[in-house]
Amino acid sequence: MVRDQIISAAVQIFSRHGFDAAGMDEIAQAAGVAKGSLYYNFRSKSDLFAAVVSEGIDDLHRQIERILSRSDTVRQVLDGLVRENLKACQDYPELVDLIMRDQSGGLDAAAASRVREAREAYVRYIAGLLENGMREGLLRRGDPLSLAGAYLAFLHALSKAGRMRGRSLSDLVAEAADLIMNGLCRP
Which of 6, 28, 52, 164 could form a disulfide with 35 if both were Cys (CB 3.0 to 4.6 A apart)? Predict the structure, then answer.
């Protein structure tokens, strides 16, 4: 329970200030716990950040698995992928920026490796979904890993541009899904 409170507060603080500017005192205050509780649960700010990123990506992965279990078509799967990824970009913009830019310079080696591994595992997961669509003949052939990386970069950029223009999540999802499907589907 305390660990979850810390993670939740850390997501907000890291999202608002980035890794370097976020302080453990501020995170403890936002979580409503003593600073000692932070260090009881996490060795360092780097360790906490790595937990936030890896557990956040795991949560996103689980949400997408739920979408897959309810989806009958590639379009439904894609709409769900787009929606969940854009929602993460809009809910936690600074945190997603840190993950996408791979700015792990302030992290200790173990935490930087954990963040990188979580991100790479998620890209491989998306690549696997795209590869399934290619194998079924629903998507154009291409390098799944490159396409997965491009897909995530596209959504990140679209979210940033949409946020600056005050566009709604539903508008961005519709536009992104249409652009992706018309670009990936076979003619």
Answer: 28
Tell me the C-alpha distance between 83 and 43, whole Å.
Answer: 34
The CATH number of whichever domain residue 48 belongs to comes to 1.10.357.10
Write the CB contacts of 151 (distance below 8 Å, at least 6 apart in sequence): 126, 130, 180
**CA–CA separation, 32 vs 173, rounded Å?**
35
Flag whether the pTM goes above 0.85. no
Domain count, the chain: 1
Non-local CB neighbours of 167 within 8 Å, separated by 6+ positions: none
What range defines the domain where residue 103 resides? 44-184
Residue 24, in any domain of the structure:
no
pLDDT at position 186, please? 55
Tell me whether residue 146 is in a domain.
yes
180/92 Cα distance (integer angstroms): 23
**155 to 33, 39, 73, 169, 174: CA distances (angstroms):** 35, 35, 21, 12, 12
Tokens, residue 137: 């003949």
